[in-house]
Amino acid sequence: MLRPVTDLSRAELAAWCEEHGQQPYRADQIRRWIFGKRVDAFEEMHDIPAALRTALAEEFRLFASTVVRHQVSRDGTEKLLLALHDGEHLECVLMREDDRRTVCISTQVGCAMGCVFCASGLEGVTRNLSMGEILDQVLRLDRVLGPDERITNVVVMGMGEPLANLKNLLPTLKTLNEKGAFGLGARRVTVSTVGLPDRMAELAKEKPAYNLAVSLHAPNDELRTQIVPVNKSIGLEAILQAADEYFDKTGRRVTYEYVLLAETNDRTEHARELASLLQKRNAHINVIPMNPVAPLDHHAPAMPRTQQFVETLRGLGVNVTVRKRKGADIDAACGQLRLRHEQSDDLVTLET
Asked: Into which CATH architecture does domain 66-342 fall?
């Protein structure tokens, strides 16, 4: 199986061009075609010498995946189920909101964190995605946009724990930011984590600094360990300290994500306890009503309970928003479409 060309950094692609008797600037031309001009084949790169296009096709694939299913929601959200070279599957999502076009991408096949509300981890983690496989999701979603639409934001909040695959995530973020590639400002890229303090510290060293979102989901260790089992070996204190240090080093306000689970973490006392943790921090809470996931017992609370939770936080001086539910009619919750595919054999590949 040929390697995806997106597994190569700009420097590596330039070196490959030199090995094939071409000037390094050819790498920039190739990358403009891939990331900027939405080509689907090397042969479409008409300002690249024919011999180099042939060499590219002989040694690389343009895409790291094939599209197995493409679903479109009534609200404009689009979701892709992608098949990888080894038969594994992953998901990515495009969300439309006014003039924003946000893509949500995955970093692992499955997930090892075990969050009780998430379909991604029901079958555990299989492996990390390569840089090319992560970038490929952005390429695929970029190609479902209309000719006048452009990706404005990337959130690394799909399947897997991003910081558990930091080795491949960091060069991916660099490519998203590079002017010769996607050219997205670092402020338009958000990395989510369940809270791995050592990896958070490593990410804080990166220049430019990206936005960080911590999946909190509970205001105390006892409850959080029930919801996020990996918390047992980490603890809220270490996570909050790492988040504080991230803010101190980068100047980027940390967002804390809180999935509301009915009769689990949605009571007024939970909101008060959460406020006590965060009200003295330069922090923002993103409250997320849970998307329904068929195999799981949890569900979102009724709207009045959600509103009471949010108003309690605001009354205690905490910055808070409620995330709009997107794509509820197309299995848009993380891992749902892959799970349904793994449990059935009725899906076929739509394109290669």
From this structure: Alpha-Beta Barrel (3.20)
